[in-house]
Amino acid sequence: MSAAVNPIADSRVPAAPRRRGAPVAKGTPFAYLVAIIVIGVTVVPLLFVFVGGFRTTPALNADPTATSGPWVWSNYSSILGSSVFWQFLENSLLIAVIATSVAVGFGSMASFALSRYNFRLREGFYTLFTIGLLFPIGVASLPVYLLLRQIPPLMENPLGVALPEAAFSLPATVVILRPFMRAIPGELEDAAVLDGASRLGFFWRILLPLSGPALTTVAILAFVTSWNAYLLPLLVFNDQNHFTLPLGVATFQSQYSQDTARVLAFTALSMLPALAFLAIAERRIVGGLTGAVKG
Amino acid sequence: MSSDARVTDRAVGPVSAVAGSKALGGRIRRARQAGRPGGLRKWLELSLLLTPALVLFLGFVLAPIGVAAYYSFYNWNGFGPLNDFIGLQNYHDAITGQVFQGAVVHNLIIAGLSIVVQLPLSIGLALLLNRNLRGRAFLRLIVFAPYVLSEAITAVVWLLLLQPGGAVDQALQSVGLGSLVHQWLANTSIVLYTLFVVITWKYIGFGIILLLAGLQGVPPELREVAAIDGATPWQTTRHIVLPLLGPTIRIWIFLSVIGSLQLFDLVWIMTLGGPANASSTMATYLIDHGFRRYEFGYGSAVAVILFMICFAFALIYQRFVLRRDTEGALTRIVG
Fold first, then answer.
1. What is the pTM (predicted TM-score) of this model?
2. Same domain membership, residue A30 and residue A145
3. Which candidate from B49, B268, B300 shows the least CB-CB separation from A113?
4. Cβ distance A172 to A106 under 8 Å?
5. Which residues of chain B make contact with A277, given a CB cutoff of 8 A?
6. What pLDDT, in 10s, does the model give residues B252-269?
7. Is residue A134 domain-shared with residue A179, that is, in the same domain?
8. Of A18, A83, A255, B113, whose CB has the highest number of CB atoms within 10 Å?
């Protein structure tokens, strides 16, 4: 219990490896064999896409799995040289950044109110947000679209996608942040008050910085969800200039379905941001995405 | 959130927070509140903090469901006035329609296959990989990669691989399994299972990582003690490790079923639910009718049905299965 009251000492980054449970068994040859098979099954399809992007469509049609040339740069260079790919990337980034900022900003404000104020409707509001956990955006996309049709400025507008995505990220944000903020000791708040901080000052200067690990978790959740979203952008955007990356890849594939090499190159480039993000922030992402659902 | 956070969450309930769970804490808290300018300022702060989130949530989460429920009683193509009230006709049409029933069955097949195939596979792989393998971190990274890719990109990758005469067919032929080559996405009796394999490829890594994290919570001492008592490794795994993985497995099943019930992106891009509705899911049916065919009233009814199914499953599962694992918010609502 004493450890529980102090979240600062007890770092709550989920799934951070604990010494206690470190595996005891040594790797056997069989385990290595299985590991290699798992890696192979995962990597080979992705590798095929990356490598295929360097080949030509006639060569791919003749023998999709051959490793002989000719090798060309032109698929990648023509995509990187045209504005289409960059436009999709920019749209995805803009929407994901707005959705994440709004969800984390509004969500942390609400979590602060729901964790460190006493008022009558507090538990009612909290329950309202938790019920939202049962409304996945996938199920609700058509209703959201029908509502957005009533607000014409939001159609064909990045905000029309970003705001609903932020709204659907709020429940998880509040459910993760509230217990975390609650567990930060009241003595810190007393000290801040003694030093002349207002309650909002305490929130801004002390509570938010202390909530770093939990904020990272909810931000990653919101960002990845938005980045990968397909259905809502599909409904809201008609104009290709507004398409996000997932929508763009699917569209590109159907438009250039005859030119396999080009589609492979485009798909490979679209995978890069997510894979690079994973490689850079692996621990945070794996911890965030698995820790958040583990509860 | 670890279990101790939940303990705190419960201990500092609405009542005890006022009184203070510890005498000292209570005194300080009362003093802190007494030293504050009164109610008005608190209400201003509260409304400043809560209003944005509440407005966003009500506007984009609750209102759409309400709007859809309203439209679902009308026959409406989205353009004329909303005046053709038909009561529950849309619901009746959907539930008795063969195509929708087929879609529900497809969702259930995917959910069932996930539990029967993916779960044992994930557990087996996680148990095997929970060793001091060299390159463990790298393995974790690779295994997780398909999960961070969007379903849209996954769909396009496999669409390309599975083309007739494409890489998969070629690979099968080159190892002498040419007889296995099929029209993976065009054969109505195979397409659903092809999609299931792709789904497994994308999501198995998530299960493995989740279970590996669960295995971290199994104290090695328990295995040692069991070994000293003469338990075989299989007995140890079966009677000690698996029960301790229970909470992780139950969460996995929950996520997997909810995911299967909402399946859309992957199916839509790879097959549009075809051929001949052989791979349709509730969500592809919903978008096909509610969006592509402008049957907004009917689509709304389907959306409400899909929502009710997910909602009912989530509540029942939380109530009867997850309850013992997490004294979570959802269990408190229904319990």
1. 0.84
2. no
3. B49
4. no
5. 148
6. 998 899 999 999 999 999
7. yes
8. B113
